[in-house]
Design brief:
Pathway: Lipid metabolism; fatty acid beta-oxidation. It catalyses: an acyl-CoA + acetyl-CoA = a 3-oxoacyl-CoA + CoA; decanoyl-CoA + acetyl-CoA = 3-oxododecanoyl-CoA + CoA; octanoyl-CoA + acetyl-CoA = 3-oxodecanoyl-CoA + CoA; tetradecanoyl-CoA + acetyl-CoA = 3-oxohexadecanoyl-CoA + CoA. Residues 329-467 form the Thiolase C-terminal domain. This is Trifunctional enzyme subunit beta, mitochondrial. Its EC number is 2.3.1.155, 2.3.1.16. This protein has 472 residues and is α/β, with parallel strands linked by helices. It contains 17 helices and 10 strands. Strands 1, 2, 3, 4, 5, 6, 7, 8, 9 and 10 form a 10-stranded mixed β-sheet that branches. It is globular and about 80 Å long. Residues 1-36 have low confidence and may be disordered.
């Protein structure tokens, strides 16, 4: 019943996506210069960690302009873009952390390779983290820990993903045979091993898997089942996807996506200055697409799913006192954060539903205190299922151990500059985009608190409170 009530209450918001896109943008601008309603979330005895700046190179559909590069090229240029944007001295950084998911084996610690390539001192330590779609979220919170504990004053956190050249391994059988061949001393032994290599089972490559290791199910299949469980219709999903693209296009046209730094790709005549996956489309075209995973009755399609994306991001985090001493004007405080996890089969993509009430309680906030919501859009159906879960007393009591629901974020505050469905989703880089966008929107719209949330493979989720730095 709660699901049906949510759908009925929001039908006006999720119908007529073109009108919705315009309405949401205008509502957002109408909230500019709203005075903060609560005191700051600083805590006695805890260092304030601030976001000085966050940038990203344009997010591009895999297989396009970045296709002949390597992941560290993208990450290096994100770091260089951050240095240029902030005029940061490269020896002023204590540590560098980057997230990635599909690792290039030649640059396994890509944070180190990218930082060296960008000209940072070889005395600055760097390490790489991986936590699926929230890898750069993890890079950020790891940086927060280093700063809050007093071990560092300035840390760069970022992430990169390059799916144009995902590593393809030889089969395990072939790898074992090659290792044995390397040790073989006599010709008969070598010939025997070589003959075993020339079989279909040996020659078949080991392709990168998009399925969950623990369940064997792809994320798309999980999303399809999730939409069915929460009664999210195909039309709702297509309308939400259309909304994302229209809002992203409008934000791009208005020059609001200021986190983008241009990238001059060697051998290309033109500078890359914008994302290339933003493509508003009519509902008629969206509804003609066939299901991508569960056929013929699934509701997840290529258009209402995030697409394979190449991209990189980086942000500069500092203790507040260090930032001010260096003459920086921070964008935001990074406050409370949580990580959650749940059943990776039936609740794979419900991280935001679990993380939202938990991080709000940790910060002592209510949903109504949040001016800006930035949630990762893996699938339109995933977003809508999370919203329905958050608005369900039954779900809260049955699965979350809560006495009542947290409620649904106001869509007039939700992902108003587009999201992963339209801007793109380089797995390791999206977290920095979410946090930076939340900070930029808070200043543009005059709000005080933003809430960032995301789901990730393995049934993991993340939530964080971003607080606007006061304008003085």
């Amino acid at each position: 019943m709660a699901m049906a009530l949510w759908a009925a209450r929001n039908v006006s918001l999720l119908s007529g996506a073109k009108a919705l896109g315009v309405r949401c943008i205008s509502v957002s601008f109408a909230h500019q210069n709203v005075a903060p309603s609560r005191k700051t979330l600083s805590k006695p005895g805890v260092r304030n960690v601030v976001l000085v700046e966050g940038v990203r190179i344009p997010f591009l559909t895999s297989g396009t302009t970045y296709v002949n590069l390597m992941p560290h090229d993208l990450a290096r240029n994100a770091l260089l873009g951050l240095v240029k944007r902030t005029n940061l001295s490269k020896d002023a950084v204590d540590y560098i952390i980057m997230g990635t998911v599909i690792q290039e084996v030649k640059t396994s610690n890509i944070a180190r390779e990218a930082s060296l390539g960008a000209g940072f001192s070889d005395k600055i330590p760097a390490h790489t983290v991986t936590q699926a779609c929230i890898s750069s979220n993890q890079a950020i919170t790891s940086a927060i820990g280093l700063i809050a504990s007093g071990n560092c004053d300035a840390v760069i956190a970022g992430g990169v993903e390059f799916l144009s050249d995902a590593p393809i391994r030889l089969s395990r059988k072939m790898r074992k045979l090659l290792l044995s061949l390397n040790k073989a001393k006599k010709l008969p032994q070598k010939l025997s091993l070589i003959s075993q290599m020339l079989t279909p089972s040996s020659l078949t490559p080991d392709l990168p898997s998009v399925s969950e290791f623990s369940t064997g199910e792809t994320m798309g299949h999980s999303a399809d089942r999730l939409t069915s469980a929460f009664s999210v219709s195909r039309q709702e999903q297509d309308e939400y996807a259309q909304r994302s693209h229209m809002l992203a296009q409008e934000a791009s046209d208005k020059g609001l996506l200021t986190d983008i730094v241009p990238y001059k790709v060697a051998g290309k005549a033109e500078m890359v200055v914008k994302d290339n996956g933003i493509r508003p489309s009519s509902m008629e075209k969206l509804q003609k697409l066939k299901p991508a995973f569960i056929k013929p009755h699934g509701t997840i399609t290529a258009a209402n799913s995030s697409f394979l994306t190449d991209g990189a991001s980086a942000c500069l985090l500092m203790s507040e006192e260090k930032a001010l001493a260096m003459g920086f004007k921070p964008k935001a405080y990074l406050r409370d954060f949580v990580y959650v996890s749940q059943d990776p089969k039936d609740q794979l993509l419900l991280g935001p539903a679990y993380a939202t009430p938990k991080v709000l309680e940790k910060a002592g906030l209510q949903l109504s205190d949040i001016s800006v919501f930035e949630y990762h859009e893996a699938f339109a159906g995933q977003i809508l299922a999370n919203l329905k879960a958050m608005d369900s007393d039954w779900f809260a009591k049955t699965y979350m151990g809560r006495s009542s629901k947290v409620g649904t974020p106001d869509l007039s505050k939700f992902n108003l500059w587009g999201g992963s469905l339209s801007i793109g989703h380089p797995f390791g880089a999206t977290g920095v985009r979410l946090v930076t966008t939340a900070a930029n929107r808070l200043h543009k719209e005059g709000g005080q608190y933003g809430l960032v949330a995301a789901c990730a493979a393995g049934g993991i989720g993340h939530g964080m409170i971003v607080e606007a730095y006061p304008v003085k």
